[in-house]
Write a structure and sequence with these properties.
about 190 residues; 4-stranded mixed beta sheet; alpha+beta
């Protein structure tokens, strides 16, 4: 039979165990991760942030596309964590917007602040433009560049994207390629 001392210790242990369990549970928070078009997105955001991200993606898609826009279905994965969930979910907004029919993430090409259009892949455009400059280098030149050329990431309608070749023609038609020699002299050809 249990003595009164052992019973007191068991009661205190039982109370301590539940106090620790309640303290531990009070610090757990719900956090969301998502799957959009089969791609897992680890956002670790709150439910409110997920709702705001969906609303922002829908508003952006409706602004970009003519008529009504629709976002793809996504699945939400809830988990409990001790970390504070993020209050913003830009990765979810980006994934939803990029998966919307007719919307793409591209790069707008500017020359001296004038927007020429959009290409799908900024790195691909830079590589092709660099090859174009290398092919057109005069014998006296070491390198070439276009003044005021900048690329800015933007969402746009997929149908508005130009091919890299077309964009190179637009850029070089608006602003000539400047060539430099080994001495630092710059000259258009």
């Amino acid at each position: 039979m249990l003595t009164s001392e052992v019973v007191k210790i068991l009661k205190k242990s039982f109370i301590l165990f539940f106090a620790l369990a309640f303290t531990l549970c009070s610090h757990l928070r719900a956090s969301c991760d998502f799957t959009v078009d089969g791609r897992r997105i680890d956002t670790g955001c709150s439910l409110k942030a997920a709702s705001l991200a969906h609303t922002a993606a829908m508003a952006a898609a409706e602004e970009i596309l003519p008529g009504a826009a629709s976002l793809p279905d996504y699945s939400r994965h809830l988990r409990l964590t001790f970390a504070r969930p993020a209050e913003k979910a830009p990765l979810l907004t980006d994934a939803l917007l990029c998966a919307a029919d007719g919307v793409m993430r591209g790069s707008c090409i500017y020359v001296d602040g004038l927007r020429l259009g959009t290409v799908e892949d900024a790195e691909g455009f830079r590589a092709e433009f660099s090859r174009y400059i290398d092919k057109t280098l005069p014998t006296w030149a070491n390198s070439g560049f276009v003044r005021g050329l900048s690329l800015t990431p933007r969402y746009t309608r997929a149908e508005f994207a130009l091919s890299n070749d077309d964009m190179i023609l637009l850029v070089t038609g608006l602003s000539p390629v400047m060539y430099t020699d080994g001495m630092g002299r710059i000259s258009p050809v």
